[in-house]
Input
Amino acid sequence: MIAQHTAEGGVLGCSGKTDPESRRDDRFSRTHFRPHQSGHYVGPVVKGAWFNAAPKRRSAPNKENAVPILRSNDAVLQYEVAGSGLDLVLLHPFPLNHHFWDPVVPALSGQYRVITPDLRTHGDSEAGDGPVTMQRLAEDLHRLCREEGVTKAIFVGASVGGYALFEFWRRYREQVAAIVLSNTRAGPENAEGRANRLRIADQVLRDGTAGFIEDMLHKLLSPATLSNRPDIVDAARHMMQKMSPQDIAGVQRGMADRLDSVETLGTINVPAIVIVGGDEVRAEAELMHHHIRASKLYVIEKAGHYAAMERPEEYARILRQFADEVYH
Output
């Protein structure tokens, strides 16, 4: 039997019920995204963090509101740093940006330095030339670590962020203190999946992004989120709208050709956890958990592919507990 850890910190046994003795106190209040008069979305409420969903800017920010930027070969990349201490690097999913992590960062940055980049083409980071391959994302991440003096960190990869982490591990595993694979998978695209990604790339270039975005929202968010949390749905939509048709097509083509990372799972010899939404298909998460020695699998109920946005209190608790175990 595979032991599955719930978002509350318990362990699911054969009965599927949570052991009450293994629960942790819920230290995080419900996070809300709310519209601001500027038209941006604000969240989370705790510590006054801002959720900026403004249209994509390709130019460098002004000095009065400066954020770190990094040149990586043919693209200028933007990222944010919060807190101080040992390092956590969080990689967001497609087609969102680093603000995906806004509800989670306050629970981590009091103890750790949290680095949240906009992956190439996403958010305010430039695309560069050609498809956004996982190899290019891994090299961008390496340059970011060098820029910020990160010699060893816990890396968290959600969705495409997880794909990039597999490539980063193959190239720069000495920099990885521990790894979190969230709402992602190790297997490559099969012929049908690859063809579908290439079809979507062509479709958004021809028809624009509006239909693609609505399809993604209904495919990736849980039914509970879609029904009860319009603030989260709107926040995800606004992040997606920052990507142009060319941006989306470039990432789709890069993901279509990603390598098979199943064999890589057996080489991961650092502390590792796998996180999956309760409303996602769990087969890929269970496969990763099975192949990574001594890993733990956490299932966040009432969450889909964007678990960190949908259930941020539970997600933050899992990350904080894991970081505390790794670093202390």
Summary: The two ends are 30 Å apart (CA to CA). The chain has one domain: 4-11+28-327. Residues 61 and 75 are 15 Å apart (CA to CA).
